[in-house]
Amino acid sequence: MYGGLWCFNIREFDNSYYLHAKESISPISGEFNREYFNTILSAPKAEKLSAKALLATEQRIPGLGNGTLQDILFNSKIHPKKKVSSFTEDNKDNIFNSIKSTLKEMTQQGGRDTEKDLFGNPGGYITKLSKNTANKPCKICGTPIIKEAYMGGSIYYCPKCQKI
Ligand SMILES: [Zn+2]
Question: Residue ranges of the domains in the chain?
């Protein structure tokens, strides 16, 4: 987990992470539509990735990180380790719709309850999968939520609802 605040002249901030994120389309904008999502899915090397890697690495989808992707995958019933090459058309539709609806809900409610704003107040969005819900029953089927280390961070998932 890391974060930072910079003051800089926008033309002189030569940081590859920042520049790549700036060139990509924000998932909450209207330009991020099903067609655009298809270009991400069909990019070279994408099919070798897992669902988590697709969503949260290399700034393919700027701003979408490890905390956010847990609920996106839960809502689309996809296991974080599921390979993009095994996605059905339904999986692709569900994951796209879930990116849109989950991020909208998080934004409207002032962020996730696992994070604090600059004044120390937690967000109003109650996370479905996070450190707060590990080992607790899944809201849909009651199976305990699994916490696992994967790709330099924790993943949380319901082993029954989220198919690999
Ligand atoms: Zn479940």
Answer: 16-113
Q: Ligand 1 mean position to 40 CA, how many Å?
A: 28
Distance in Å, CA 81 to ligand 1 centroid: 16
Q: Measure the CA–CA gap between 41 and 8, rounded to whole angstroms.
A: 34
Question: Does CATH number 1.10.8.50 belong to domain 16-113?
Answer: yes
pTM: 0.87
Place of tokens 């298809």: 38
Confidence of residue 2 (pLDDT cuts 50, 70, 90): low
> Which among 16, 56, 28 has a CA at the least distance from the CA of 40?
56
**What separation in Å is there between the alpha carbon of 74 and the centre of ligand 1?**
9
